[in-house]
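Quick one:
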Amino acid sequence: MDIQIRPIVTEKATAVTEKLNCYTFAVSPDANKFQIKDIVEKLYNVKVVKVNTANYAGKRKQRYTKSGLLKGKTAAFKKALVMVAEGQSIDYYSNI
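Output:
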C-alpha cells in the first residue's frame, strides 16, 4: 500500500511543534498509526514516541459565478500528530 504523507505548515501546527515537539502531517485516510510511525522514522531519521490521528470529512462547497452556481466537495483526509523523542526535530524542507 502506498501511503501519501505531507507536512501541514500553519500557525496552529507551528505553535504545537514549538510547545510539545509534535509535528503535524496530512496522510492517506487508510493509513494506520504503525504505518505512519514507520514512514516518518524512515523519511526524517527520528525516533517517534507517539502518534495521534484524526479523520476529517470532506466539506461541501459552493460558489456563485457568471455561469451559475458551482457545487463541489473538498477531499477527506487524515491528520497525524507525530511526537518525536526529546532533543530531536524534523526539518520539513530538507527533502525538497
